[in-house]
Specification:
The chain has two domains: 2-46, no CATH class; 63-177, no CATH class. Helices cover 49% and strands 8% of the residues. The protein has eight helices and six strands. It has helices spanning 2-11, 30-40, 67-81, 87-96, 103-108, 113-128, 142-145, 159-177, and strands at 21-22, 43-44, 49-51, 54-56, 130-131, 134-135. The strands form three sheets. It has a two-stranded parallel ribbon. Helix 3 (67-81) packs parallel to helix 6 (113-128) and helix 4 runs antiparallel to helix 6.
């Protein structure tokens, strides 16, 4: 509370206690939870909070926390599904629209590998297309397609590689500046 009070004094902004929540592990003693409520005036929240498009949670990430992202990708694909697009047109949509949807999330938090695989699968299904509401045969693995154009791929980066690059970037910022935050 001293830190929040210092923040209020320095910035001139007040923390709205009606809108503020705190999260702790579910197996925390009830008297600890009650004491935090009393001292801070904040509400206890035991479910996931979404802030700036990123789920905030205590503990390990679960697939259900990322359902908004998966449904966003699925809705975008569903709206394009009825259009007659060439493979080149699909590759462009994947490269510039679908790949940008999870970028903010991947740069901020660690999603489960299953979520990345599920999104990757939906994108691959969209690229190869459908016939009579059934997926068409995938003539090449997504690993081969995710190579750059000059190496025989379609120029779409693999989500796991993008995620790994963001984690290395965070590591480098921490090592170089001794902080988890960007430049000041």
């Amino acid at each position: 509370m001293q830190t929040l009070s210092s923040y209020e004094n320095i910035s001139g902004q007040l923390v709205n206690k009606e809108k503020s929540h705190f999260m702790i592990y579910s197996n925390t003693f009830n008297n600890t939870t009650d004491r935090i409520k009393r001292v801070t005036g904040f509400k206890y929240k035991d479910e996931v909070i979404t802030y700036l498009g990123c789920p905030l949670f205590v503990g390990r990430p679960r697939i259900i926390y990322f359902s908004d992202l998966i449904s966003k990708v699925l809705n975008r694909i569903s709206s394009w599904k009825t259009k007659t697009l060439s493979y080149g047109g699909r590759a462009i949509l994947i490269r510039y629209v679908l790949r940008s949807l999870p970028i903010h999330l991947l740069s901020a938090i660690t999603p489960p590998v299953t979520v990345l695989k599920q999104i990757q699968g939906m994108i691959a299904d969209f690229f190869w297309g459908w016939r009579n509401e059934r997926k068409k045969y995938h003539w090449s693995s997504w690993k081969n397609l995710s190579y750059p154009l000059d190496e025989g791929g379609i120029g779409v980066k693999n989500l796991k590689d993008v995620y790994r690059a963001f984690k290395y970037k965070q590591w480098w910022i921490f090592i170089a500046r001794k902080t988890l935050w960007g430049t000041f």
